[in-house]
Amino acid sequence: MLLQGSGTAGPWGWLTLLLVACAARASEITFELPDNAKQCFYEEIVQGTKCTLEFQVITGGHYDVDCQLEGPDGAVLYKEMKKQYDSFTFTASSNGTYKFCFSNEFSTFTHKTVYFDFQVGEDPPLFSNENRATALTQVKYCCV
């Protein structure tokens, strides 16, 4: 995940975000969004990949931000104004860099804390072998 934005997150805030994103290719980030600021994030996605963007404003003002997601061609795939939280799922229509931005430009004095989770692709199954005994199957056979 590539990070870029406008505003004043400070050098340590950016370093922390960058280390977290690089160390585990993190898809969950919590960040501060100053008043009158916009913060954008970029993700390279392969065509046909299912993706989900979820976000929530944790602190600040009326707990609302603007959010917009654009495809590689600049087409707006999702746009919501003054939302506290939301979730949007889509399938990438083409290869390229997708951009999603959070804006607090409408606020003149209140900064926000925003959490987001951007999932690219399907989660792998928790258990690779579904035929093994689990606590639930053991209880099921015990009670029959």
For the biggest β-sheet, the strand order reads 1-3-8-5-6
Shape call = globular
Strand composition percent = over 45%
Q: Total number of β-strand segments?
A: 9
Radius of gyration of CA atoms, rounded to a whole number: 19 Å
N-to-C order of helices and strands:
EHEEEEEEEEH
CATH architecture grouping of the domain at 24-120: Sandwich
The class by helix and strand makeup works out as: alpha+beta
Description of the structure:
The protein is an alpha+beta fold and 144 residues long. It has a domain at 24-120: Jelly Rolls. Helices cover 16% and strands 46% of the residues. It contains 2 helices and 9 strands; from the N terminus they run βαββββββββα. It has helices at 11-24, 135-143; strands spanning 2-5, 28-33, 38-45, 50-59, 65-70, 76-83, 85-91, 96-103, 112-120. A 5-stranded antiparallel beta sheet has the order 1-3-8-5-6, covered by helices on one side. This is Transmembrane emp24 domain-containing protein 7. InterPro entries: Emp24-like, GOLD_dom, GOLD_dom_sf.
